[in-house]
C-alpha cells in the first residue's frame, strides 16, 4: 500500500472533506440562487445561473460519494453563505464567489492524486471540471 499523499486521503480525512465540500456546495448554490433575485446584468445573470447549476450538480456528486462510502450526509450550509451574502454589491460578491470556487479546486487537486477509489475519483474529477469551468467563466 502506498503512503497517502495528503491527510485528506485517510478514511477520516476523506469523510471530513466530502462533508465540508457538501456544506460549501450548498452554500454556493444558495448564494447564487439568492443573488439571482437581485438586479444584475445579463453577464452576471448568466454567470450566476452557471455557478448555481454547477453547485447543485456538485451536491449530487458529493451525495453519490457519501452514499458509496455508506456515510450519512450532513445537513449543514457552509459559513461561506453568510460571508458572501454580507457583501451587498454583486460586483464585489462575484469575485468572492470565485474565491469559493478556487477553494474547492485547491481541495480537490490536493485530494485526487491519492484517491484510490474509482467511484470517488470519477465523481470528484467531474466536480473539479465544473469548478474550473465556472472559475474560468468568472474571469472571461
UniProtKB/TrEMBL annotation:
Q: Which Pfam families match?
A: DUF6306
Recorded superkingdom: Bacteria
Chain ranges of the DUF6306 domain: 18-136
Q: Which InterPro entries match?
A: DUF6306
What is this protein called in UniProt?
Diguanylate cyclase
Query: What organism does the record attribute this protein to?
Result: Stutzerimonas stutzeri
Amino acid at each position: 500500500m502506498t503512503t497517502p499523499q495528503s491527510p485528506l486521503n485517510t478514511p477520516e480525512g476523506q469523510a471530513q472533506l466530502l462533508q465540508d465540500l457538501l456544506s460549501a456546495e450548498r452554500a454556493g448554490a444558495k448564494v447564487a440562487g439568492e443573488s439571482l433575485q437581485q438586479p444584475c446584468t445579463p453577464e452576471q445573470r448568466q454567470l450566476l445561473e452557471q455557478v448555481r447549476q454547477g453547485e447543485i450538480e456538485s451536491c449530487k456528486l458529493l451525495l453519490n460519494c457519501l452514499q458509496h462510502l455508506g456515510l450519512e450526509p450532513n445537513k449543514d450550509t457552509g459559513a461561506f453563505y453568510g460571508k458572501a451574502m454580507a457583501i451587498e454589491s454583486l460586483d464585489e460578491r462575484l469575485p468572492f464567489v470565485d474565491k469559493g470556487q478556487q477553494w474547492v479546486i485547491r481541495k480537490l487537486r490536493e485530494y485526487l492524486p491519492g484517491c484510490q477509489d474509482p467511484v470517488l475519483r470519477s465523481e470528484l474529477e467531474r466536480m473539479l471540471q465544473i469548478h474550473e469551468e465556472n472559475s474560468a467563466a468568472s474571469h472571461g
